[in-house]
Known about the structure:
The protein has a single domain (5-233), classed as 3-Layer(aba) Sandwich (Rossmann fold), CATH 3.40.50. The strands form two sheets. Strands 6-7-8-3-9-10 form a six-stranded mixed beta sheet, sandwiched between helices. With 235 residues, it is α/β, with parallel strands linked by helices. 31% of the residues lie in helices and 28% in strands. The two termini are 34 Å apart. It has helices at 45-53, 75-79, 98-103, 115-121, 123-127, 138-150, 168-183, 195-198, 226-233; strands spanning 5-16, 19-30, 34-38, 59-65, 68-69, 83-86, 156-160, 187-191, 204-209, 212-218.
Amino acid sequence: xxxxxxxxxxxxxxxxxxxxxxxxxxxxxxxxxxxxxxxxxxxxxxxxxxxxxxxxxxxxxxxxxxxxxxxxxxxxxxxxxxxxxxxxxxxxxxxxxxxxxxxxxxxxxxxxxxxxxxxxxxxxxxxxxxxxxxxxxxxxxxxxxxxxxxxxxxxxxxxxxxxxxxxxxxxxxxxxxxxxxxxxxxxxxxxxxxxxxxxxxxxxxxxxxxxxxxxxxxxxxxxxxxxxxxxxxxx
Length: 235
């Protein structure tokens, strides 16, 4: 395994109960890289994210984070290796204020962003700090879900459909945020249905179908792969 690899997945199989969802996924992500997992709904992209952090049922194969095997680790131990997962459903608590939601997860590593840095990055959250979590707009809730993992010290960020259903101005803000995080050396895996959002942000792309990676290409090969993307994604 290359020394600058943050994440290395080999022949990963995963199940939900009896349902065999991942069928031998192979992928790697270098430190500081933004990688996008593309595919239609049901292709296995979210399950891949959940399998990395240990939230599926049985897993078989290899998942290494900074060289450490985690396929048998429980989720809390995976998190402590510096992994932050932002699920599609966001998980904002209605009974807590925006700031209480922000402060909820424990620090898992040194070097997490301070609240001041987070408010600098997301000024809307500073304005809404005292508002109940579910009084926030969809865009503000999404910003809060991303901000919450930045406080923990995680350096590998797994972001699932963060642009879904949001106004273009918020999507643009999230794209800026990803560029800023990349510039600060974060490693990011994006699952995105919105190809126009993911396309300019990612260094590399993996295309999934039926629980497997079927294609891989780099940012500079985007144009050459337009037809293939049309076939797999309808974009």
